[in-house]
Amino acid sequence: MDEPLKIGIVGCAEGTHGKVWAELLASEAGARFGMKPAAVWDRSSESARALAQAIGARAAPSANEAGEGVDGVMITELLPDRYLELVTPFLQRGMRVFLNRPFAGSVADAHAIVRLAAKHGARIYSASALYHTRAAATATERLEKIKPLRLFTVTGPSDHIVFYLPHAIAAMVSVLGTGVSTVRAVSLKPMTDDRTRAAEPVVVYVEYGSNASVGPARGVVQMIGPGATWYGFTMSMFGAGGEAEPVHFEVTYDHLLETMAAFFRTGDEPIPPSVIIEKTCIYHAAVASARKDCSPVDVARLVRGGNR
Questions:
Q1: Backbone phi, then psi, for 287, in 5-degree steps?
Q2: Which of 35, 166, 216, 219 to pair with 265, CA 20 to 30 A apart?
Q3: Residue 103 sits in which domain range?
């Protein structure tokens, strides 16, 4: 059996995937993934020291030093606003880096990350756990039976915009692919005291372009909003050939961590950077639309590197 991969984790405060994954990977149950958290860092040095002591890792004195003596780095700070800043030194060293969803704090940052990785021969990977599911294969099979697709919905729980809207988008893209042309936030109002949480149900209208592999489908990505007491993601599809049975996505870290381990071990990127860019653009287009009185945002232009 191969030696466990040594992983540096940047962002491990309470509530982060970095902390959750570090604790899992350091446990007996997590040994099957073949990754060992070797160094951890957080802006809260107290959080990093406490986690390092609990799991037997090294508390790095700086984010940059979390990448020393490791096979790869996870960027998992709670919000993506500083991801470009945090990932830059690792990309400049040609390292293998996983960035938590939604990959970047802006469309411009997302393009900058991809360019930096290409310039320095680094490898990047970013995905939601909802991108790697068995349910996606089931949905794809059901889609084939009702083509051409006309309408779809992807529904998720919660009121966490930054945390869960990317999950719903990932589920959509994992089945329908890329090629989104336009996004419009029909309902996406953040709370006044917390921009990460929605004050009402989230409804985002999505149009695929005529050149998309799925065709010019129309659909809605939506979240229940405040007060939801359940967790899950469901996709419904309606085509010229009929209505598909709804697909319920499994919610587990297993597929994501297995894919992450293979990425760190081989350097093969599981998702093309172009797909990562489009998923990120869809998310930021929805947020931008909400800020612009729910007017449509040209996703295709953002993917090409244009301004909002």
A1: -65, -40
A2: 166
A3: 5-129+258-266
Place of tokens 């990785």: 117
CA atoms of 142 and 204, how far apart (whole Å): 23
Which three-class secondary structure state does DSSP give residue 170? helix
Instruction: Identify whether residues 208 and 178 lie together within a single domain.
Output: yes
Pair 171, 105 in one domain: no
Identify whether residues 226 and 300 lie together within a single domain: yes
- Cα separation, 157 vs 201, in Å, equals 9
185 and 155 in one domain? yes
Residues 101 and 194 in one domain: no
- How many whole angstroms separate alpha carbon 143 and alpha carbon 237? 7
| Whether residues 87 and 219 fall in one domain | no
d(CA 27, CA 253): 15
pLDDT one digit per residue (tens) for the chain, 308 residues: 579 999 999 999 999 999 999 999 999 999 999 999 999 999 999 999 999 999 999 999 999 999 999 999 999 999 999 999 999 999 999 999 999 999 999 999 999 999 999 999 999 999 999 999 999 999 999 999 999 999 999 999 989 999 999 999 999 999 999 999 999 999 999 998 898 999 999 999 999 999 999 999 999 999 999 998 889 999 999 999 999 999 999 999 999 999 999 999 999 999 999 999 999 999 999 999 999 999 999 999 999 986 54
> Using CA atoms, how far apart are residues 84 and 97, in angstroms rounded to an integer?
12
Q: State whether 120 and 145 are in the same domain.
A: no
* Count of structural domains, the chain: 2
Q: Is the pTM of this model over 0.85?
A: yes
Residue 236: CB atoms within 10 A of its CB come to 17
